[in-house]
Each structure stands twice: as structure tokens, then as C-alpha cells.
Amino acid sequence: MATLDWSQCSAVESVPGKRSGAWVFRDTRTPVSVVFDNLEVGATISEIMDWFHLSNEQIVAVIEFAARSLDVIPAMQQCTQPVDAHPLR
To answer: What pTM was estimated for this model as a whole?
Structure first.
């Protein structure tokens, strides 16, 4: 499974010594993972907002970032034609 490069998402930060450097919502101690963990078990965005004191914008930002990251095609899969590694003679 690919790891997301959260450093490209402006809604989050990783600070050494803060939650062991885990990715958290900017200016909070709330890990980004709480959104995905709770959505996975059936929580709504409104419930997550209430439980973790997050805004709709914060939650939508990480969900959209994750969704856009899934659209990125790895460089090795971008090649549409087979490559012949045999030298020309």
C-alpha cells in the first residue's frame, strides 16, 4: 500500500515531539487518522467534527487530498508500450 505524502496537504502538520511526529490537523493534537478510522466504522463527518472539534473544511481537505493522491499513477505504470531492453545491433 502506498503512503501519502501529507507534507503536500496544507491542513496538516507533523511536529517532532507532538504526538510522536504523527500527522495532525494544523494547530491541533488531533491525528489525521481519526477521520479515516471513524469513517471506516460508520461515523459521519458531522459526528467527527463534534467529537474531535474539527471544522468541515479541515475534514474535507484531508479527504480530498487522499482522494486526489489515489489518482496519481506511479511512474512505472505510465508507460503504455512495452520496453525492449535488448541492445540494437
So the answer is: 0.71
Taken in order 15, 62, 33, 35, the sign of the CA dihedral is: positive
Q: Could you count the other beta carbons within 10 Å of the beta carbon of residue 12?
A: 21
Q: Is the pLDDT of residue 6 over 80?
A: yes
Q: Would you state the cell numbers that stand for residue 20, as one nine-digit string?
A: 510522536
* Nearest of 66, 63, 54 to residue 46 by alpha carbon: 54
Q: Which tens digit of pLDDT belongs to each residue from 9-45?
A: 999 999 898 888 889 999 999 999 999 999 999 999 9
Q: Is residue 39 part of a domain?
A: yes
CATH of the domain at 60: 1.10.10.10
Q: Residue 8's closest CA among 53, 59, 62, 55?
A: 62
Total domains, the chain: 1
Instruction: Flag whether 80 is in a domain.
Output: no
